[in-house]
Design goal:
This protein has two domains: 125 residues, Fructose-1,6-Bisphosphatase, Chain A, domain 1 (2-Layer Sandwich), CATH 3.30.540.10; 108 residues, D-Maltodextrin-Binding Protein, domain 2. The chain is built from seven helices and ten strands. It binds adenosine-3'-5'-diphosphate (A3P) and magnesium ion. It comes from Gordonia phosphorivorans.
């Protein structure tokens, strides 16, 4: 079948295929722990980036790309369609041999994720914005935090809502824990880049979760400086209370 634009795959299919394919490649890099940690991280970043950039050049030659591992071409600021990619999110977790790492693939239009896919290859999971289930059911009373623990805003929310911390590496893995309904929230502050949270926010939004900056404003991508230091992803049922607890920090 040929799609509009002469494409063989829809944007959603392509995003999912890239997240899955780069994940398989990264599983191969880590196979058997044959390399040391530094080599695993460096090679994982570089190989996943090389494969993804060639796939996008071939499949969507007219689109702009912002990737953690590529030089930033500011032509993206005038582009209609901008892919925002983290070829390996959670590089340090990957190199330590944990299952907490992800591949992030998002296509943004006007700064908003249009189509997103996040793979957690070591957990055998793929989340895509066009197929993800709506998050529902009981609240869990848990919040995802990084390996290093809470930031102040995250701790304030946990204290106010009495949420128990669950330590998970990688922004994608933390966000997908909310999407799976394993935890109720993931609150980040203190620094991140657009590639760290764009595809996770795209999938989380499609799953019916609340996603915003800590001050409650809309998260906008494809900025001249692709620094996106804070955001909240949480169950809609607790969003008002979470934002109230975050007021002091925004
Ligand atoms: N304060 C900060 N400044 C910049 N990047 C940060 C950050 N805190 C977390 N990150 C990035 O967010 C991702 C998830 O981190 P964590 O597991 O600690 O939550 C990692 O991305 P990469 O692994 O893609 O470099 C990490 O580098
Ligand atoms: Mg990252």
């Amino acid at each position: 079948m040929t799609l509009p634009g002469g494409y063989r795959h829809s944007d959603a299919e392509l995003a999912a295929m890239i997240a899955e394919g780069a994940g398989q490649l990264l599983l191969g890099v880590g196979h058997g722990a044959l390399l040391d940690r530094r080599q695993l991280g460096d090679l994982g970043d570089a190989l996943a980036e090389a494969w993804i950039s060639r796939v996008l050049q071939r499949q969507r030659p007219g689109d702009a790309v912002l990737s953690e591992e590529a030089e930033d071409d500011l032509a993206r600021l005038a582009a209609d369609r901008v892919w925002i990619i983290d070829p390996l999110d959670g590089t340090s977790e990957f190199s330590r041999g944990t299952t907490h790492w992800a591949v992030h693939v998002a296509l943004t239009r006007n700064g908003i994720p249009d189509v997103s896919a996040v793979s957690l290859p070591a957990q055998g999971q793929l989340f895509r914005s066009d197929e993800v289930a709506q998050v529902g059911g009981e609240l869990t009373g848990r919040i995802a935090v990084s390996r290093f623990g809470h930031s102040y805003p995250s701790a304030a929310v946990a204290e106010r809502l009495r949420l128990q911390a669950v330590h998970i590496g990688s922004a994608g893995a933390k966000a997908m824990a909310v999407v799976r309904g394993d935890v109720d929230a993931y609150i980040h502050s203190g620094g991140q880049f657009e590639w760290d949270n764009c595809a996770p926010v795209g999938v989380a939004t499609a799953a019916g979760l609340h996603c915003s900056r800590l001050d409650g404003s809309t998260i906008v991508y494809n900025n001249p400086q692709p620094y996106l230091p804070d955001f909240v992803i949480c169950r809609k049922e607790i969003a008002d209370e979470v934002l109230e607890a975050l007021r002091y920090f925004s």
